[in-house]
Amino acid sequence: MTTYDHWISGSTFPGESDRFGDVFDPATGSVDSQVRLATAADVDAAVLAARRAFETWSETSIMTRTRILFAFRQLLVEHEDELAAVISAEHGKTLGDAKGEVVRGREVVEFACGISQLLKGEFNDQVSGGVDSHSFRQPLGVVAGITPFNFPIMVPLWMHPVAIACGNTFILKPSERVPGASALVARLYAEAGLPDGVFNVVHGDKVAVDAILDHADIDAVSFVGSTPIAKYVHERASLTGKRVQALGGAKNHAVVMPDADLDYAADHIVAAGYGSAGQRCMAISAVIAVGPVADTLVDKIRERTIDLKVGPGTGEDVEMGPVVTAASRQRVIDYVGQGEDAGAKVVVDGRDLVVEGHRDGFFVGPTLIDHVTTDMNVYTDEIFGPVLTVLRVPSMDAALELISANPYGNGTAVFTSSGEVARTFQRKVPVGMIGINIPVPVPMAFHSFGGWKDSLFGDHHIHGPEGVRFYTRAKVVTTRWPHVSEDSLAAMNFPTAQ
């Protein structure tokens, strides 16, 4: 059985821990590998390696950093199939979905390859008599990323390429459920020529997380996960003076207007709700049917839902795989039952799904629930599974009120053929990422990803221009080169421009 050890200073590092976590194949329910769970001492070792590497990496030329990132990007292309296979085996998502994740993560590397442009400073000549002023940005130091199970390569790639391009060194604590992709990425970085200690991987659970949050020599933490843990990470890391960006949970709404193309909307809602078994922070989980469209829309979603092929991620023509753990499966089943007990109508019921040949896998079928109200926990809670809920409202204003009252503000979408409706929606809805006839509006790498309200704690969104700002701090320099014969112009009053 494979055992995943940490990666510190350019090689595997078993460390001191004798604790291990099981890594399951969600399609079979079997334990296929184990991962070593770090102690605080193991985190110390990673920080020490990263701090030493920072002394030289931060002084390495931008062009050298860029060439290494170009090489790393090419290795991601060459190992795309291998990465997708590892992701599918440990997460359960289909191979096609896993490849899409690799590509979207790689786009951030491509963005970071332009770091020479992204780190350009500003210059003003003659701000005062004989005085010039310029600004530039410098790396923070040792930074860490704590990432979730649902995107084993994409979410870490939202963090470390930008941080490393900016001159920082990085410690990744991936989810212990999906360690394989991070272990492979560490080797690809080494093959690309990244110096030892610049990128490190520490596997673990809460012990490792707390050690990262408390460590005095870690300068910043990036996190993606649930809202309760995002709050915890933000508060605890901030107490030690770290810069923090903590992305939390979501309850993403798709508003379907009466003028929408309902076949188009149904196609995209099904894909956005059930793709990756609903285990995406940008998944549509709440459909808001406006006015008279509800019955027809529900029928169209139902027709598409019952036709979905569920099975192992490597299966031929499979469209949806299992959820990640047995506990996740039971959680989804319990929520569906609670919604039914509260008065909602279960239109498509995936609770009893059995996949032939994989009876022990963590499968739950796509589920559609109608007549949901905002006080039901199938609406209020982030289920993180293949469950679509339908809420009915009379107007666009009522839809906006419903979304505004929700504590989450990650992503939302509206399906309409009206430019006026779309413009009103995007201006009024209090959500960070908005789709117009696009249900999963994940920004491209050259924009930044992040929500509002309880979906983000901290001032900065992730990757893109805000990622560069997060991983650097600014300096402003004011300069005078006086002539030898010149009066000093020193004065006791506060200096002003002349």
SSE map:
Layout: E1 2-4, E2 6-8, E3 11-13, E4 20-25, E5 30-36, H1 40-57, H2 62-78, H3 80-91, H4 95-112, H5 115-118, E6 122-128, E7 131-139, E8 142-146, H6 154-165, E9 169-173, H7 180-192, E10 199-201, H8 206-214, E11 220-224, H9 227-239, E12 243-247, E13 252-256, H10 262-274, E14 284-290, H11 294-306, H12 326-341, E15 345-348, E16 367-370, H13 377-380, E17 387-393, H14 396-405, E18 408-409, E19 411-415, H15 419-428, E20 433-436, E21 452-453, E22 456-457, H16 464-470, E23 472-480
Parallel strand pairs: 1-5, 8-9, 8-11, 9-10, 11-12, 13-14, 13-19, 14-17, 16-17, 19-20
Antiparallel strand pairs: 2-3, 4-5, 6-7, 7-23, 12-22, 15-16, 18-21
Helix pairs in contact: 1-8, 2-4, 2-7, 3-4, 4-6, 8-9, 10-11
**CA-based gyration radius:** 25 Å
Extended strand count: 23
CATH C-level label of the largest domain: Alpha Beta
Major sheet, described briefly? 7 strands, mixed
**Gap between N and C termini:** 73 Å
Q: Which architecture of the largest domain would the CATH scheme give at its second level?
A: 3-Layer(aba) Sandwich
CATH topology of the largest domain: Aldehyde Dehydrogenase, Chain A, domain 1
- The residue-averaged pLDDT reads 96
Strand content: 15-25%
Count of individual helical segments: 16
For CATH, the homologous superfamily of the largest domain is named as Aldehyde Dehydrogenase, Chain A, domain 1
User: Shape from CA axes?
Assistant: globular
Poorly predicted ranges: none
Question: What structural class do helix, strand and pairing data support?
Answer: alpha/beta
Strand order in the largest sheet = 15-16-17-14-13-19-20
How many separate domains make up the residues? Answer: 2
Roughly how much helix do the residues carry, as a percent range?
Answer: 25-40%
